[in-house]
Design goal:
The protein has 343 residues and is an all-beta fold. The protein is 2% helix and 44% strand.
């Protein structure tokens, strides 16, 4: 499939389609070589979660190489496995495994993103990076080696500033700092592998159309000799939205306009680590695992199995989504919630 064209601001613009740049696959484990062949593109990031069991998330990308993985729910350093075999022109292949990727006892979901293919060297920043970027879809994968200098920057390969980006130190144990435009205007972060609220940190600086900036020599972002990974996103009209909403505490809660009907919504309470005795994790809903008001949630920040919160959840609309829940994890009155939505 090609890219769609429609009028934006009176001029023809190219709008990515979900099947060209992002798609969601559900599959059953086989305990043998298992090739997923339903994609219309070769993925550069494959993010897999066991739906039925408390197993870690698995994120592997083409920049680091098939089978080099990190886990969004913990602080572990990068590891490798031969059981994620390859990225293919129409999907990916996994082989015999434990419950992490391909066990016959379990069902899985894979969120698949198209970057820019093989990584290229990017020298836009002070620190040279390896980048696989898809500017049309507002997504890039970045790796770099820290140089330990203050006020450093790293190129992201996109044509506008990222609005949401997630760091992970690969070479040693560390949390995942996540920066979002609607969380203190980037001047702070929320830990992606936890339930915490926003942390103010002057090390976080607003990015621009070429680079991500960090005002620190800290090992959290730019320690000398340390290896890092960043996944970066920005809004794309008609396809992807990075935004926020304010909770109102009503069961039929806020309506969020994205400009398209989302297939994937990830959200987090940025104001609190817990509300109403509920941990405020990073929730993921998608239309491949559920229909109607999406209540089947997975949590990027935990290894929990898929949970169905029944009639609570996210109702998908033609131009956005609506929150149906009163609990503080999704809709506490006055709290700020950040999200990433993809068509």
């Amino acid at each position: 499939m090609g890219l769609n064209k429609r009028l934006i601001g009176g001029a023809a613009a190219v709008v990515p389609t979900n099947t060209d740049n992002f798609d969601i696959v559900t599959y059953a484990g086989t305990n043998t070589t298992n090739s997923i062949t339903s994609l219309d593109f070769q993925p550069d990031l494959v993010w897999i979660k066991n739906r039925d069991n408390a197993n870690d998330h698995f994120l592997t990308d083409s920049v680091r190489g098939a089978g080099a993985y990190v886990q969004s729910n913990n602080s572990n350093a990068e590891d490798t496995t031969s059981r994620f075999n390859s990225f293919n022109s129409n999907g990916f292949t996994v082989s015999t495994d434990t419950a992490l990727l391909n066990n016959t006892a379990y069902n899985y979901v894979a969120w698949c993103f198209k970057g820019g293919g093989s990584a290229v060297s990017n020298t836009d920043g002070d620190v040279t990076a390896q980048v696989s970027a898809n500017p049309e879809a507002g997504f890039s994968i970045i790796t770099y080696t820290g140089d330990g200098t203050n006020n450093a920057s790293v190129g992201h390969g996109l044509n506008q500033a990222p609005e949401f980006f997630i760091y992970k130190r690969l070479s040693s144990t560390s949390d995942w700092p996540a920066a979002h435009k609607d969380n203190n205007s980037y001047q702070g972060y929320i830990v992606f592998n936890g339930t915490g609220s926003s942390t103010t940190d002057s090390a976080m600086q607003a990015p621009d159309s070429s680079v991500i900036n960090f005002n620190t020599t800290s090992p959290t972002f730019n320690g000398s000799g340390q290896e890092w990974l960043i996944y970066a996103f920005h809004s794309v009209d008609g396809y992807q939205k990075v935004g926020s909403y304010t909770g109102d505490g009503n069961f039929a809660g806020p309506t969020v306009t994205t400009g398209f009907s989302p297939r994937f919504v990830m959200l987090k309470n940025a104001s609190s680590s817990s509300r109403d005795s509920i941990d405020c994790d990073w929730y993921i809903f998608d239309t491949a695992r559920d229909t109607g008001t999406l209540g089947k949630k997975l949590e990027a920040s935990t290894n929990n199995a898929e949970e169905d919160i029944s009639n609570n959840g996210v109702a998908i609309l033609s131009d956005g989504f609506r929150i149906y829940r009163t609990a503080g994890d999704m809709n506490r009155s006055g709290d700020n919630y950040i999200y990433l939505a993809i068509a």
